[in-house]
Amino acid sequence: MGHKGGGGVGRRGVVAGAAGLVASLMVTGDVAGAAGPEPGNRRGGDGKPRRGGARAEEFRGMWVATVVNRDWPSRTGLPAADQRAELIALLDQAVKRRLNVVILQVRPTADALWPSPYEPWAQCLTGVQGRDPGWDPLGTAVAEAHRRGLQLHAWFNPYRVATHADPTRLAEDHPARRHPDWVVPYGGKLYYDPGLPEVRRFVQDAMLDAVRRYDLDTVHFDDYFYPYPVAGEVFDDDAAYEAHGGGFPDRAAWRRDNIDRLVGEMSERIKDVKPDVRFGISPFGIWRNATTDPRGSDTRGLQTYDDLHADTRRWVKEGWIDYVVPQLYWHIGFGAADYATLVPWWSDVVRGTGVHLYVGEGLYRAGDPAAPAPWQDPAELSRHLTLALGHDQVLGHAFFGARDVVTDRIGAMARVVADHYPTPVRPPGW
């Protein structure tokens, strides 16, 4: 999935519908990045001393996006052997960079990278949704990751059905075609309606099938719940709201409850199926701005609580998730959403909850000609990790995405490895 450059706040805007987020951040201008403070507390959130600035256990993750072949496979229609070889090469790159977690997108558009009884084979494999690729990508990924000492976190997108708006382009037996009343077109894409209880149950069942079948380490959601706002368009869930919205003060509260139910129920059901499988979410980095809510961060951007109807702070406080990876894809000193402001804010949110905090890093921005000046400095990303060392709740980082880990346009990832990853370590709790 491609990302927007410049001063925008979208995580995966090119593919996943975050267009317009530049405006939503209400950017007033970039501030030049500056080095973070010297590391302070040298103990991790688990109480273990850090060794030379690194923990004995630390989350070092890499996202592998499959939607529209962002990171893998390199293109549709490759022979099974070539697809497998490319996947193995990415796992080997993770090992080379001394990472220890691969977050593989296995349900990109309500289709599957395993032989699912619920949904068709993913289009990103063969170019034709529903066509058997001739191998089991998820099964292979789990086995090969574990063989290399990597955790495999299966990344699911709950509600996105298609990156286009034409239901006839979906596989003939796609659930969205069998149940057109489940689907809402919005912003040139198709989404399942989160307000329908039968939809919520179905997407949980579809995702839990992978949990039952494979030795997954974690179920991982990203930032897409209700879709990112599109100017001039309305997400048409009138029928669902009329049927199920009684008792709520307004539609926004009802929508938040729908997403809370998805997260809370999924948490319980994962533990029922396999108690050792964890549940993590990687939300957009701003919960609410302090100007909206005094509990919010000193930022001026899109708010997950209000705009995506995702109460990410509550999920941490309720303990519904095992880890949170806020996408802090902004440079140190960025006025509207400063990395140096959001790291301590999230640290305070998780403190005392038992929920692990890992920071999502925008590696894809490093060296992007459209990105602000600080991202042209190969040391910017390394400064992020240095700053995070001063916050004992930060137990690691994840990098978006795999393509950028491999190409490393200006050497920013190499700098991170040289400065912060001198030796391999275990991921937390493994």
Q: What is the number of E strands?
A: 13
Mean pLDDT: 89
Distance linking N and C termini: 29 Å
How much helical structure, as a percent, in the residues? Answer: 25-40%
In CATH, what is the homologous superfamily?
Glycosidases
The coarse silhouette is globular
Q: What is the CATH topology descriptor?
A: TIM Barrel
- Helix- and strand-based class? alpha/beta
How would you describe the overall organization of this protein?
This is Glycosyl hydrolase-like 10 domain-containing protein. It comes from Streptomyces roseolilacinus. Keywords: Signal. InterPro entries: Divisome_Glycosyl_Hydrolase, GH, GHL10. The chain is of the alpha/beta class. The strands form three sheets. It has an eight-stranded parallel beta barrel, surrounded by five helices. A three-stranded antiparallel β-sheet has the order 6-8-7, with no helix packed on it. 54% of the residues are buried. It has a single domain, classed as TIM Barrel (Alpha-Beta Barrel), CATH 3.20.20. The protein is globular and about 55 Å long. The N terminus is likely disordered.
Task: Give a short overview.
This protein is of the alpha/beta class and 430 residues long. It has helices at 13-16, 21-24, 80-96, 123-126, 137-147, 175-178, 197-213, 238-244, 251-273, 304-308, 312-318, 339-350, 380-388, 402-407, 412-420, and strands at 50-51, 54-55, 59-64, 101-107, 151-156, 160-162, 183-186, 189-192, 218-221, 278-281, 323-324, 356-361, 394-399. It comes from Streptomyces roseolilacinus.
Secondary-structure topology with pairs:
Elements: H1 13-16, H2 21-24, E1 50-51, E2 54-55, E3 59-64, H3 80-96, E4 101-107, H4 123-126, H5 137-147, E5 151-156, E6 160-162, H6 175-178, E7 183-186, E8 189-192, H7 197-213, E9 218-221, H8 238-244, H9 251-273, E10 278-281, H10 304-308, H11 312-318, E11 323-324, H12 339-350, E12 356-361, H13 380-388, E13 394-399, H14 402-407, H15 412-420
Parallel strand pairs: 3-4, 3-13, 4-5, 5-9, 9-10, 10-11, 11-12, 12-13
Antiparallel strand pairs: 1-2, 6-8, 7-8
Domain Glycosyl hydrolase-like: 58-369
Pfam families: GHL10
Keywords: Signal
